[in-house]
Amino acid sequence: MLYLTEGMIGNLARGAALAGLLASGAVAAPPGETPFGVYDPEGQFSDDDDVQIEHLFLPWEDVFLPSLVDADVYALARERALLVTIEPWTWTRSERNTPARLKAGLQSGDYDQYMQAICSVLGTLNSPVTVRWAQEMDDQSTQFIWAGWEPGTYIEAYKRMVDICRAEAPQINYMWSPLGYENMAEYYPGDDYADLVGLSVFGFQPWEEEILGQAQSFVDILEPRYERAKQFGKPIVVAETGFSGDQAYVDAWHNTIRQTYEQFPDLVGVVYFNQVEVYPWPDGFGLPDWRVDERVIGPNE
Protein backbone atom coordinates (compact mmCIF):
# COMPACT_ATOMS: atom_id res chain seq x y z
CA MET A 1 0.00 0.00 0.00
CA LEU A 2 1.20 3.52 -0.70
CA TYR A 3 0.06 6.47 1.34
CA LEU A 4 0.96 10.10 0.64
CA THR A 5 0.21 13.46 2.21
CA GLU A 6 -1.11 16.32 0.13
CA GLY A 7 1.67 18.56 1.42
CA MET A 8 4.28 16.32 -0.19
CA ILE A 9 2.92 16.92 -3.66
CA GLY A 10 4.01 20.50 -4.08
CA ASN A 11 7.32 19.84 -2.36
CA LEU A 12 8.15 17.02 -4.73
CA ALA A 13 7.32 19.11 -7.76
CA ARG A 14 9.83 21.68 -6.51
CA GLY A 15 12.40 18.99 -5.85
CA ALA A 16 12.52 19.61 -2.10
CA ALA A 17 11.23 16.39 -0.63
CA LEU A 18 12.57 13.52 -2.71
CA ALA A 19 15.17 12.33 -0.25
CA GLY A 20 14.19 14.02 3.00
CA LEU A 21 17.17 16.36 2.82
CA LEU A 22 16.34 18.10 6.09
CA ALA A 23 16.37 16.01 9.25
CA SER A 24 13.72 16.63 11.89
CA GLY A 25 14.72 14.46 14.80
CA ALA A 26 16.87 11.38 14.42
CA VAL A 27 15.48 7.90 15.02
CA ALA A 28 17.09 4.49 14.91
CA ALA A 29 16.50 1.54 12.63
CA PRO A 30 14.92 -1.56 14.19
CA PRO A 31 17.28 -4.22 15.55
CA GLY A 32 18.30 -7.10 13.32
CA GLU A 33 20.48 -8.19 10.41
CA THR A 34 18.09 -7.90 7.44
CA PRO A 35 19.03 -4.92 5.22
CA PHE A 36 16.78 -2.00 6.11
CA GLY A 37 15.43 0.89 4.08
CA VAL A 38 13.14 3.86 4.51
CA TYR A 39 10.78 6.11 2.66
CA ASP A 40 11.56 9.09 4.83
CA PRO A 41 10.39 12.45 3.40
CA GLU A 42 10.97 14.23 6.74
CA GLY A 43 14.53 12.93 6.98
CA GLN A 44 14.19 11.34 10.39
CA PHE A 45 16.61 8.54 9.46
CA SER A 46 19.09 10.85 7.74
CA ASP A 47 21.85 10.23 10.30
CA ASP A 48 21.29 6.50 10.80
CA ASP A 49 24.21 4.45 9.49
CA ASP A 50 22.09 1.28 9.76
CA VAL A 51 19.87 2.26 6.80
CA GLN A 52 20.96 0.69 3.52
CA ILE A 53 18.11 1.67 1.16
CA GLU A 54 16.61 5.09 0.38
CA HIS A 55 13.12 4.77 -1.09
CA LEU A 56 11.76 7.42 -3.47
CA PHE A 57 8.26 7.77 -4.93
CA LEU A 58 7.87 9.53 -8.28
CA PRO A 59 4.53 10.50 -9.87
CA TRP A 60 5.75 10.47 -13.43
CA GLU A 61 3.66 13.46 -14.55
CA ASP A 62 5.01 15.73 -11.81
CA VAL A 63 8.58 14.74 -11.06
CA PHE A 64 11.29 17.43 -11.07
CA LEU A 65 14.07 15.48 -12.72
CA PRO A 66 17.07 17.40 -11.31
CA SER A 67 15.98 16.38 -7.83
CA LEU A 68 16.92 12.80 -8.70
CA VAL A 69 20.51 13.97 -8.81
CA ASP A 70 20.05 15.48 -5.33
CA ALA A 71 18.71 12.13 -4.15
CA ASP A 72 21.75 10.40 -5.60
CA VAL A 73 24.08 12.73 -3.70
CA TYR A 74 22.11 12.17 -0.50
CA ALA A 75 22.22 8.38 -0.90
CA LEU A 76 25.90 8.27 -1.84
CA ALA A 77 26.86 10.30 1.22
CA ARG A 78 25.13 7.67 3.37
CA GLU A 79 26.20 4.63 1.33
CA ARG A 80 22.59 3.76 0.50
CA ALA A 81 21.08 2.18 -2.59
CA LEU A 82 18.06 3.81 -4.23
CA LEU A 83 14.70 2.09 -4.59
CA VAL A 84 12.64 4.21 -7.00
CA THR A 85 8.89 3.62 -7.19
CA ILE A 86 7.48 5.19 -10.36
CA GLU A 87 3.73 5.76 -10.29
CA PRO A 88 2.01 6.33 -13.67
CA TRP A 89 -0.18 9.27 -12.65
CA THR A 90 -0.09 12.71 -11.08
CA TRP A 91 -0.35 13.39 -7.36
CA THR A 92 -2.67 16.32 -8.13
CA ARG A 93 -5.97 14.62 -7.49
CA SER A 94 -8.10 17.03 -9.54
CA GLU A 95 -6.00 16.26 -12.62
CA ARG A 96 -5.66 12.52 -12.10
CA ASN A 97 -6.12 10.18 -15.03
CA THR A 98 -8.69 7.39 -15.34
CA PRO A 99 -7.82 3.69 -15.69
CA ALA A 100 -9.21 3.63 -19.23
CA ARG A 101 -7.17 6.64 -20.36
CA LEU A 102 -4.02 5.27 -18.71
CA LYS A 103 -4.43 1.92 -20.48
CA ALA A 104 -4.99 3.62 -23.83
CA GLY A 105 -2.02 5.92 -23.39
CA LEU A 106 0.29 3.09 -22.41
CA GLN A 107 -0.79 1.00 -25.38
CA SER A 108 -0.42 3.89 -27.84
CA GLY A 109 2.95 4.98 -26.55
CA ASP A 110 1.72 8.40 -25.43
CA TYR A 111 3.28 7.88 -21.99
CA ASP A 112 6.59 6.44 -23.15
CA GLN A 113 8.14 9.90 -22.80
CA TYR A 114 7.60 9.93 -19.02
CA MET A 115 9.44 6.67 -18.44
CA GLN A 116 12.15 7.60 -20.90
CA ALA A 117 12.79 10.96 -19.22
CA ILE A 118 13.02 9.50 -15.72
CA CYS A 119 15.21 6.58 -16.71
CA SER A 120 17.53 8.79 -18.74
CA VAL A 121 18.40 10.51 -15.46
CA LEU A 122 18.48 7.29 -13.42
CA GLY A 123 21.01 5.94 -15.89
CA THR A 124 23.45 8.71 -14.96
CA LEU A 125 23.31 8.18 -11.18
CA ASN A 126 26.18 6.70 -9.22
CA SER A 127 24.08 4.94 -6.56
CA PRO A 128 22.80 1.40 -7.16
CA VAL A 129 19.23 1.83 -8.46
CA THR A 130 16.21 -0.48 -8.48
CA VAL A 131 13.04 0.63 -10.28
CA ARG A 132 9.61 -0.43 -9.04
CA TRP A 133 6.90 0.51 -11.56
CA ALA A 134 3.14 0.59 -10.86
CA GLN A 135 3.13 -1.35 -7.60
CA GLU A 136 0.34 -3.40 -6.00
CA MET A 137 -1.36 -4.18 -9.28
CA ASP A 138 -3.23 -7.08 -7.61
CA ASP A 139 -5.10 -4.71 -5.26
CA GLN A 140 -8.86 -4.36 -5.78
CA SER A 141 -9.49 -1.36 -3.52
CA THR A 142 -9.52 1.21 -6.39
CA GLN A 143 -6.70 3.12 -4.69
CA PHE A 144 -4.53 2.92 -7.81
CA ILE A 145 -5.72 3.49 -11.37
CA TRP A 146 -3.33 0.77 -12.63
CA ALA A 147 -4.52 -1.93 -10.19
CA GLY A 148 -7.12 -4.60 -10.77
CA TRP A 149 -6.64 -4.66 -14.56
CA GLU A 150 -6.92 -7.74 -16.69
CA PRO A 151 -3.51 -9.36 -16.04
CA GLY A 152 -2.42 -9.48 -19.67
CA THR A 153 -3.05 -5.76 -20.08
CA TYR A 154 -0.96 -4.93 -17.03
CA ILE A 155 1.87 -7.27 -18.02
CA GLU A 156 2.05 -5.76 -21.50
CA ALA A 157 2.31 -2.26 -20.02
CA TYR A 158 4.86 -3.32 -17.40
CA LYS A 159 7.12 -4.96 -19.99
CA ARG A 160 6.90 -1.93 -22.24
CA MET A 161 8.01 0.37 -19.43
CA VAL A 162 10.89 -1.90 -18.41
CA ASP A 163 12.09 -2.11 -22.02
CA ILE A 164 12.05 1.67 -22.28
CA CYS A 165 13.93 2.05 -19.02
CA ARG A 166 16.52 -0.58 -19.94
CA ALA A 167 17.33 1.32 -23.12
CA GLU A 168 18.15 4.40 -21.04
CA ALA A 169 19.65 2.75 -17.95
CA PRO A 170 20.89 -0.77 -18.73
CA GLN A 171 22.67 -1.14 -15.39
CA ILE A 172 19.67 -0.82 -13.05
CA ASN A 173 17.48 -3.56 -11.56
CA TYR A 174 13.70 -4.00 -11.58
CA MET A 175 11.36 -4.94 -8.79
CA TRP A 176 7.97 -6.40 -9.63
CA SER A 177 5.93 -5.53 -6.56
CA PRO A 178 2.41 -6.89 -5.95
CA LEU A 179 0.57 -6.34 -2.71
CA GLY A 180 0.80 -10.08 -2.15
CA TYR A 181 -2.82 -11.24 -2.55
CA GLU A 182 -3.89 -14.66 -3.79
CA ASN A 183 -4.14 -13.47 -7.41
CA MET A 184 -0.66 -11.95 -7.53
CA ALA A 185 0.87 -14.66 -9.74
CA GLU A 186 -1.53 -13.74 -12.55
CA TYR A 187 0.37 -10.46 -12.95
CA TYR A 188 3.90 -11.90 -13.01
CA PRO A 189 5.70 -10.49 -16.07
CA GLY A 190 8.26 -13.31 -16.39
CA ASP A 191 11.74 -13.91 -15.09
CA ASP A 192 13.39 -11.56 -17.58
CA TYR A 193 11.41 -8.61 -16.24
CA ALA A 194 11.85 -9.03 -12.49
CA ASP A 195 15.16 -9.04 -10.64
CA LEU A 196 13.38 -8.92 -7.28
CA VAL A 197 9.85 -9.39 -5.95
CA GLY A 198 8.46 -6.74 -3.60
CA LEU A 199 5.63 -7.18 -1.10
CA SER A 200 3.67 -4.82 1.15
CA VAL A 201 3.15 -5.69 4.84
CA PHE A 202 1.25 -3.24 7.07
CA GLY A 203 -0.07 -3.84 10.58
CA PHE A 204 -2.91 -1.82 12.11
CA GLN A 205 -3.94 -3.20 15.49
CA PRO A 206 -7.41 -1.58 15.88
CA TRP A 207 -8.60 -2.97 12.56
CA GLU A 208 -7.09 -6.41 13.14
CA GLU A 209 -8.72 -6.81 16.56
CA GLU A 210 -12.11 -5.60 15.35
CA ILE A 211 -12.27 -7.31 11.95
CA LEU A 212 -9.92 -10.29 12.28
CA GLY A 213 -10.55 -11.00 15.96
CA GLN A 214 -6.96 -10.59 17.12
CA ALA A 215 -3.84 -8.56 16.50
CA GLN A 216 -1.47 -9.83 13.81
CA SER A 217 2.30 -10.05 13.93
CA PHE A 218 4.73 -9.16 11.15
CA VAL A 219 5.22 -12.87 10.48
CA ASP A 220 1.45 -13.51 10.46
CA ILE A 221 0.94 -11.07 7.59
CA LEU A 222 4.16 -11.72 5.68
CA GLU A 223 4.04 -15.52 5.70
CA PRO A 224 1.20 -16.17 3.21
CA ARG A 225 2.46 -13.42 0.91
CA TYR A 226 5.99 -14.79 1.03
CA GLU A 227 4.68 -18.29 0.25
CA ARG A 228 3.03 -16.90 -2.89
CA ALA A 229 6.14 -14.97 -3.90
CA LYS A 230 8.77 -17.67 -3.43
CA GLN A 231 7.53 -19.65 -6.45
CA PHE A 232 9.31 -17.17 -8.72
CA GLY A 233 12.74 -17.96 -7.31
CA LYS A 234 13.67 -14.28 -6.91
CA PRO A 235 15.05 -12.36 -3.92
CA ILE A 236 12.10 -10.97 -1.94
CA VAL A 237 11.88 -7.52 -0.36
CA VAL A 238 9.20 -6.08 1.90
CA ALA A 239 9.10 -2.91 -0.19
CA GLU A 240 6.65 -1.14 2.12
CA THR A 241 5.91 -1.78 5.76
CA GLY A 242 4.40 0.22 8.58
CA PHE A 243 2.62 -0.52 11.81
CA SER A 244 0.47 1.26 14.36
CA GLY A 245 -1.14 0.18 17.63
CA ASP A 246 -0.57 0.29 21.36
CA GLN A 247 2.94 0.34 22.79
CA ALA A 248 3.23 -3.43 23.12
CA TYR A 249 2.06 -3.97 19.54
CA VAL A 250 4.46 -1.38 18.14
CA ASP A 251 7.37 -2.77 20.17
CA ALA A 252 6.67 -6.30 18.93
CA TRP A 253 6.67 -5.24 15.28
CA HIS A 254 9.69 -2.97 15.71
CA ASN A 255 11.72 -5.79 17.22
CA THR A 256 10.80 -8.42 14.61
CA ILE A 257 10.74 -6.87 11.13
CA ARG A 258 14.53 -7.17 10.64
CA GLN A 259 15.06 -10.54 12.28
CA THR A 260 16.21 -13.60 10.33
CA TYR A 261 13.59 -16.34 9.90
CA GLU A 262 14.19 -19.87 8.65
CA GLN A 263 10.89 -19.81 6.76
CA PHE A 264 11.94 -16.68 4.83
CA PRO A 265 15.34 -17.61 3.33
CA ASP A 266 14.85 -15.39 0.27
CA LEU A 267 13.93 -12.25 2.23
CA VAL A 268 16.73 -9.77 1.49
CA GLY A 269 15.34 -6.43 2.67
CA VAL A 270 12.64 -4.56 4.59
CA VAL A 271 11.72 -0.95 3.76
CA TYR A 272 9.77 1.19 6.22
CA PHE A 273 7.12 3.68 5.05
CA ASN A 274 7.60 6.63 7.41
CA GLN A 275 4.51 8.63 6.46
CA VAL A 276 0.80 9.09 7.13
CA GLU A 277 -1.76 7.12 5.15
CA VAL A 278 -4.14 9.14 3.00
CA TYR A 279 -6.15 6.32 1.44
CA PRO A 280 -8.83 5.25 3.94
CA TRP A 281 -8.25 1.98 5.76
CA PRO A 282 -11.13 -0.47 5.20
CA ASP A 283 -14.27 -0.55 7.33
CA GLY A 284 -14.15 3.09 8.38
CA PHE A 285 -10.88 2.91 10.33
CA GLY A 286 -9.54 6.18 9.04
CA LEU A 287 -5.94 7.03 8.25
CA PRO A 288 -3.25 5.21 10.22
CA ASP A 289 -0.10 7.17 11.00
CA TRP A 290 2.97 5.03 10.27
CA ARG A 291 5.49 7.70 11.31
CA VAL A 292 7.90 6.38 13.89
CA ASP A 293 7.10 9.08 16.42
CA GLU A 294 3.31 8.92 15.94
CA ARG A 295 2.49 5.23 15.48
CA VAL A 296 1.69 4.42 19.12
CA ILE A 297 -2.05 4.74 19.68
CA GLY A 298 -3.53 5.56 23.07
CA PRO A 299 -6.57 3.70 24.51
CA ASN A 300 -9.09 6.26 23.21
CA GLU A 301 -7.66 6.77 19.75
Describe the structure.
This protein has eight helices and eight strands. With 301 residues, it is an alpha/beta fold. The protein has one domain: Alpha-Beta Barrel (TIM Barrel), CATH 3.20.20. Strand 7, helix 8 and strand 8 form a beta-alpha-beta unit. The longest helix has 18 residues. It is globular. The N terminus is likely disordered.
Gist of the model:
The chain has helices spanning 6-13, 66-77, 99-108, 112-122, 151-168, 205-212, 218-229, 247-254, and strands at residues 36-39, 53-59, 81-87, 129-133, 173-176, 196-204, 236-244, 267-273. The chain has 301 residues and is α/β, with parallel strands linked by helices.
Distance between the termini: 22 Å
- What is the helical fraction, as a range of percent? 25-40%
Shape: globular
Name the average pLDDT. 91
Query: Which segments are poorly predicted (pLDDT under 50) over 5 or more consecutive residues?
Result: 1-24
CATH homology group: Glycosidases
Q: How much strand? A: 15-25%
For the secondary structure, the number of strands is 8
CATH architecture descriptor? Alpha-Beta Barrel
Helix/sheet category = alpha/beta
Radius of gyration: 18 Å
CATH topology: TIM Barrel
User: Number of domains in the coordinates?
Assistant: 1
- CATH uppermost class: Alpha Beta
Can you summarize the main beta sheet?
8 strands, parallel, barrel
Order of helices and strands: HEEHEHHEHEEHHEHE
Number of helices: 8
